[in-house]
Design brief:
It is globular, with a radius of gyration of 23 Å. Among the domains are: 13-25 and 40-199, Rossmann fold, CATH 3.40.50; 366-433, Luciferase, Domain 3 (Luciferase, domain 3, Roll); 438-533, ANL, C-terminal domain (GMP Synthetase, Chain A, domain 3, 2-Layer Sandwich), CATH 3.30.300.30. The protein contains 15 helices and 24 strands. Helix 1 (13-22) runs parallel beside helix 8 and helix 7 crosses helix 8 (237-244). It has helices at residues 13-22, 42-58, 75-85, 100-110, 122-128, 158-162, 199-210, 237-244, 257-266, 276-289, 308-318, 349-357, 447-455, 491-498, 527-533, and strands at residues 27-31, 37-41, 66-70, 90-93, 114-117, 137-140, 155-157, 179-184, 194-198, 222-225, 247-250, 271-274, 298-301, 321-327, 334-337, 367-371, 386-391, 414-422, 428-433, 438-440, 443-445, 460-470, 474-483, 510-513. The termini are far apart. The longest helix has 17 residues, at 42-58. Helices cover 27% and strands 23% of the residues. By secondary structure, it is α/β, with parallel strands linked by helices. The strands form five sheets. Strands 2-1-11-10-12-13-14-15 form an eight-stranded mixed β-sheet, sandwiched between helices. Bound molecules: adenosine-5'-diphosphate (ADP). Adenosine-5'-diphosphate binds at residues 185-186, 232, 302-305, 324-329, 333, 359, 416-418, 430, 433, 520, 522, 524.
Length: 542
Amino acid sequence: MLGLMQEWPLLCHKILDHAARQHGNREIVSRTVEGPIVRTTYADARVRALKVAQLLERDGYKLGDRIATLAWNTARHLEAWYGIMGIGAVYHTLNPRLFPEQLVWIMNHAEDKCLFVDLTFMPLVEKIAPLVPSLQKVIVFTDAAHMPQTALPNVVTYEEWLAQADGDFQWREVDEHTACGMCYTSGTTGDPKGVVYSHRSNVLHAMIACMPDAMGISSRDVIMPVVPMFHANAWGLAQSVPMVGAKLVMPGGKMDGESIYHLLDSEKVSFTAAVPTVWLMLLQYLEETGKKLPYLNKVVIGGSACPRAMTEKFERNYDVEVIHAWGMTEMSPLGTLATIKPEYAGLTGDALLNVKQTQGHPPFGVEMKVTDDENREHPWDGKTFGRLKVRGPAVAGAYYGGAGVEQFDEEGWFDTGDVAHIDPNGYMQITDRAKDVIKSGGEWISTIDLENLAVGHPDVAEAAVIGIAHPKWDERPLLVVVRKAGKEPTKTDLLGFMEGKVAKWWMPDDVAFVDAIPHTATGKIQKTTLRQQFKDYKLPTA
Ligand code: ADP
């Protein structure tokens, strides 16, 4: 017997319809690439997204076409996403921090037909566009007054283009399983891999993200997604924020401490989210200026492990709740969030920080397990670590073009490539990427734990740990440190600080001081480059 409820396909444009109808006057505030702060509303965004859809169809784009975007977080970028999805086409976000040749590879792999681009990236587009034969048109997110000269063919100005439409258009009703978005992982191993979101997965993911024990957002929040729309589907915020109808603050291209602080303060932002490096800059700015964060309630930190010292600073010095989160492009991207279950409700001080230090527990819609290499499941004892595997309605079931088949098994589990353990209350803690973990004498050492500990030293700006070949132990940890400006901690200081806080055999064999640690396009420590840099390093213990 079938249920007798209505067919109401989970389509992304319904989110914007809902926002425009129920929260039509709520503001979308953007720091534009041209400079000024511009205010629109959900009602405006819907009208403009309909125009984008109408014009894309007029210009010949259709169901399934990949339409790339190379842009910061602004209202225009958001409208374009919804307009693209609204004709059944696929938004494909490009990360401008990738090398031009990587972008060319990704665009050709996806066979992008059209590109929306911010002014900032015009010089980059002039380089890459001629190398992407499928690309027919470039639409520059600006108005006639700011439009630059360019030798590229088929380039139009967004505002002039948009003015050609009357917005009298119906969203195209497609099956909810239709592709609507695409994002490539940065490909720290091998070629980048394309993750293809569907309308259904994006809508479900947005609902999951809003739940109180996940991001816990509402129409009363003022939300600033600092995490770019080109990083892992903007952590779902481009859908979940309009879904709840919260005021949306889009920070554009300026991520420095002062610019971020300015918007947090002037727009009274209550909720924000980004990778740790962004918060490092903000906290530094706050420390230098003595400024406070009176409006901010919550910050979601993920993308790489949130250092304990960062959680401590936000919570103790600024009274801002930190939610440590873990996810992947392949998971739309939310996997787990370290919100507090009743089992841990009474904790305070260090015991509470220990829980907040984990990557947290999955909301409904994400199943998770940890296994050994033979796929035997480990107990949830908070210490036995192994390969972290996940499945759910917003988890990738395959990569675009059939890459990476070995990461998916016949029971639907996706092997994340992360190494983790799970505690009896379901809190997961990442100890490493499988390829970064240090194998010493047949046992594993977590580089993330050591890095977290090292950045807790007051004179350390950033720290990374890598394995260095060792004749007896196979590999031993080397701690690589960037000192804070004007500070001169020594190897003895740092090792002394760490001693007693980790198992003796985990202690780094040496400390190397560097001016900078390399990062990937999504703000992670680039361990491959670092290992290359230290490939001839001789440990004093070798
Ligand atoms: P990319 O692979 O393109 O850099 P992703 O954001 O998809 O971008 O990367 C996902 C990976 O980032 C995870 O598999 C994990 O290794 C790491 N990661 C994400 N969040 C955390 C976190 N809170 N703690 C530790 N690692 C994290």
